[in-house]
Amino acid sequence: MIAKGLFPLAILFVIISLSCPAFAAWDRTGNVTEHSYIQLRGYMDDVKIYQTDKGYNGQKLVVGTQGSGIGTRRQHAEVTGDEISFTESAYLQYRPYTIGSGGTVTESTVSESDLRNALCAKNYEVGSVISESYTDLTYLIKDTTIYQNDTVSVYQIGSSFRGTGKIGARVKDGPTGVTMLNYGGTYVGDVSIREEIGVGDVFYLTCP
Questions:
Q1: C-beta separation of 137 from 188 below 8 A
Q2: CB of 193 within 8 A of CB of 34?
Q3: Number of structural domains found in the chain
């Protein structure tokens, strides 16, 4: 199933609920729980791919949002050994956005000396990696918490910024297993992001 959303010319409200049983299972990492909340005035382009097994086996889900405007979006996903559960609620309103409009970063302010921030964390035992980076910043308020051991990884990102933010994640079923979550997103403008990913045991993560 593929869901790719463009900001429309009018207000869009979306609620998606999916629960898919699968016939193939994996038992090394166990579970992935992801919860995200985004509030944005600017431009966004992100895609998340979930699956329970490789190739033609198991269940697949692709969801994404692309375009410029203002809005909020909340997503919650759980990937277990045999199913994907996903919900999304969003309020998106199209408005044209260009770099420099609405008091955001202008080309004249972008230089090699601009404030930048980046983080990348990996857990080879679990098979997970997450990265976040921020450039062209007017300001950045950031709170990232990471917990890892040999069986569990928990990532909690809380960022508010004006500029450009990029977040990426890849979670595999162990170092050599199937990629259960693949996520890449770019967010430009005035943005608030809360992203939480739990890998290993069953996590029920919540965002404010």
A1: no
A2: no
A3: 1
Task: Work out whether the CA dihedral 106, 37, 159, 201 comes out positive or negative.
Answer: negative
Q: Is residue 83 part of a domain?
A: yes
Cα separation, 99 vs 155, in Å, equals 30
Instruction: Give the domain extent around 160.
Output: 2-100+113-200
Q: Is 19 contained in some domain?
A: yes
pLDDT confidence bin for 21, thresholds 50/70/90: very low
Give the distance, in angstroms, between the CA of residue 198 and the centroid of all CA atoms in the same chain.
13
What torsion, rounded to 10 degrees, do the Cα atoms 12, 141, 154, 79 define?
10
- Tell me whether residue 108 is in a domain: no
Tokens of 15: 């609620």
pLDDT for the residue numbered 15: 38
Is 205 inside any structural domain? no
Give the C-alpha distances (Å, rounded to integers) separating 12 from 17, 47, 65, 68, 95: 17, 18, 12, 13, 12
Q: What is the pLDDT of residues 68-108, one digit of tens each?
A: 999 999 999 999 878 999 999 999 999 988 765 444 444 33
42 three-class SS: strand
- Kindly report, residue by residue over 32-42, the tens digit of the pLDDT: 999 999 999 99
A 10 A CB-CB count for 120 gives 10
**Full DSSP string of 70-110:** EEEEEEEEEE-SSEEEEEEEEEEEE----TTGGG---GGG-
